[in-house]
Amino acid sequence: MGSVREVIITTSYRCAFENYIRGKSLSPLFLQGNALTVLKELPEDSIDCAMTSPPYWGHREYENGGIGLEHDYRDFVTDLAAIFLELKRAIKPEGSFWLNIGDTYENKGLVGIPWRVAFELIDCQGWVLRNSVIWNKVKSGMDNSKDRLGNVYEHVFHFVKRAKGYYYNADAIRSRPREAKIINGSVISATGVSGIRYKRQIELSTALSPEEKADAFKELNDLLAEMATGKVSDFRMIIRSQQRATHSDSEIVSGRARELRNKGFYFLRYHPNGSKPADVWDIIPEDTQNREAHFAPYPADLCRLPILATCPEGGLVLDPFCGTGTTLLVARNLGRKSVGIDISPQYLRRAEERCASLL
Predict the structure, then answer these.
(1) Which of 269, 290, 310 is at the close of a domain?
(2) Cα maximum dimension of the chain
(3) Among 29, 33, 184, 210, who pairs with 20 as Cys (CB 3.0-4.6 Å)?
């Protein structure tokens, strides 16, 4: 893959960036400086995917000052919003922005930092929030407070610039599906569904007309044939007066409820390539091999799904608060180019060393 790029300490960030994206190397580019200053020099619509975890407000003193040291949380939200507005300009129209952000307490009260930032981006900058992921920090540190529950999760927000037409590869992040089987000549789904129970319910139904029963039998047999050829790994059948419509019984809000009324039945097909991840991620919170290298390293596993899903192969990932380079390391290992910005030369040197050691 070639050697890791030098840490750039220059006022010509744009030149360094443009030279990098024209090259073929997947080694990260590191830009030292204030995130807002650097982002202002980057070309418009040039980033496929951004992912970052900015410093927490009021938790620690970070080298060289910067975000997180504001006296008032409102100033912290304002400063972050200014950076993310500039980031929005640099992200492609089909691009994504993933934000991992933690909360904090002030005068015994939880401030609500993540949602204050999210609402600012939604209401004032026009970002579209597609998901609020809960990162369950498995085996996280001990919480010694005696008057509240332990804090074991953080938010990971997925923002896009437009509601439709953004890049998203759901197949890249699906879990491997369990396969249907043929036992004694009968097709059995991944979870043991054979269709026998549904056939019996159709036969005994008093809520279906003869014509609806005939259609139900035909479509059920067609679906079992699809399952036998691997086009479907599993399914559920919803029959009028036998099962409730999924999501809602209201025909005003649920197309499924209308289908059940008009047709008498419908099918829920499981995707043959497996299921998408849900919005709760159980991930150990830090890379222990780099515990001494950074105050709050976030784990590589937190970056993999966002990059696979929202950055195309050969695309470019950016982290405006890159710290020790976790986002960039994952991006490189997944075949994406990456750019990291940080105000701390110490962190950038460690990030460079970390990436270089794994080439």
Answers:
(1) 269
(2) 78
(3) 29
Are 325 and 352 a contacting pair, CB within 8 Å? yes
Q: How high is the pLDDT of residue 259?
A: 85
Is 96 in the same domain as 209? Answer: no
The verdict on 202 and 78 lying in the same domain is: no
Same domain for 258 and 280, yes or no, is: no
Same domain? 221 vs 332: no
Is the pLDDT assigned to residue 131 strictly greater than 90? Answer: yes
By C-alpha distance, which of 236, 234, 308, 305 is closest to 271?
234
Q: What are the pLDDT digits (tens) for 58-87? A: 665 555 567 788 889 999 999 999 999 999
Q: Domain of 201?
A: 181-269
- Residue 125 sits in the same domain as residue 190: no
Q: How many CB atoms are closer than 10 A to CB 228?
A: 14
Nearest-angstrom CA–CA distance, 52 and 61: 19
Q: CA-to-CA distance for 254 and 238, rounded, in angstroms?
A: 14
Structure tokens at 262: 């008009």
The tens digit of pLDDT for each residue in 194-218 reads: 788 899 999 999 999 999 999 999 9
- Measured from the Cβ of residue 264, the count of other Cβ atoms closer than 10 Å reads 21
User: 222, 241, 269: which is the final residue of a domain?
Assistant: 269
Tell me if the pTM is above 0.90.
no
DSSP letter at 206 equals S
pLDDT of 134 > 90? The answer is yes
Q: List, in sequence order, every beta strand (DSSP E) within the chain.
A: 7-8, 29-32, 47-52, 91-101, 105-106, 109-110, 128-137, 153-160, 181-183, 186-188, 235-239, 265-269, 280-283, 316-319, 337-342
- Whether 83 and 226 share a structural domain: no
In a domain, 2, yes or no: no
The number of domains in the chain is 2
H helices of 43-99, where?
A: 73-90
* Residue 1 covered by a domain: no
Stretch 180-189: mean pLDDT:
63
- Tell me the C-alpha distance between 27 and 353, whole Å: 12
